[in-house]
Fold this sequence. Notes:
- Residues 19-242 form the Xylose isomerase-like TIM barrel domain.
- It comes from Mesorhizobium erdmanii.
- This is Sugar phosphate isomerase/epimerase.
- The chain has helices spanning 14-24, 40-50, 72-91, 113-134, 154-164, 174-180, 184-191, 215-224, 260-268, 276-294, and strands at 2-6, 28-33, 53-59, 96-99, 137-140, 169-173, 195-200, 230-233.
- It is of the alpha/beta class.
- It has an 8-stranded parallel beta barrel, surrounded by 6 helices.
- Helix 1 links the parallel strand 1 (2-6) and strand 2.
- The protein is globular.
Amino acid sequence: MHLSTHNWMRAEPLETTLKRIKKFGYESIEISGEPEQYKTKETRALLKEHGIRCWGAVTLMLGERNLAARNQGQRERSVQYVKDVLTMVSELDGEIITLVPATVGKVVPDGTEEEEWKWVVDATRECFTHAKKVGVKIAVEPLNRFETYLFNRGAQALALADAVSPECGVCLDAYHIHMEEFNVHDAIRQVGKRLFDFHVADNNRFAAGLGQIDWPRIVATLKEVGYDGALTNEFVAPVDRTPAAPYPDMVERHPVDISPEQLKFIQDHGSSVLTEKFYTDQMRITAETLLPLIK
Length: 295
């Protein structure tokens, strides 16, 4: 196992992110799934310069992106988006994409169970065909019930992966599984060898080590099933707007270089644009919590 991180949680130049994570012992990055944002030739050069490899990318299912949409045109555009993310990862020598099948924040179905299952399976199969072509693995990620209605548990994600191909896998997220699973360790064991990625944030979605999750036991269970991929940092710190705030200086009051879409996506996760100091501390705490367990 090695330590990785997402970068969608704060709008900043990629070079700034890479400098920060390198000094804390991160080995790779799961880059934001926005292919138009990254010129792969320049991004490859930056990664090489800082000694960080691309582990993969996560699909940012905002706006109209939805593989389970009733509208065929919307599904087709969503499939093309996923294909573009796969191509980007391939050009960056990455290994996986984390696929969230439905729009984040959408909690109302578009059709019957049978209709939606056919739509999402057919769309994911088309994405998988492209993934095989470009040499990148797909890991289906379940989210908690307040972010999506469709895939909330590992067993559900595994059912979609099974319907697509034995070579399609699953990504589990410590934050989400501690909300949704009957037993988080059994959930990891059930996915087993099909676990392609593992995201980390504590039960309060701060950095690993700042909540109630038993990280030594989580890492032990991952080792038990033979997982040897990334522990990918994905804290999305909730903003406290009251006098009780433990981190009163966590919010950047004058953000720059962030699109309205990205800002909304972050705010929809209960967070905001975080100050560099607070964000850096969260990166450091995650590394200090997890690196001793995996080295």
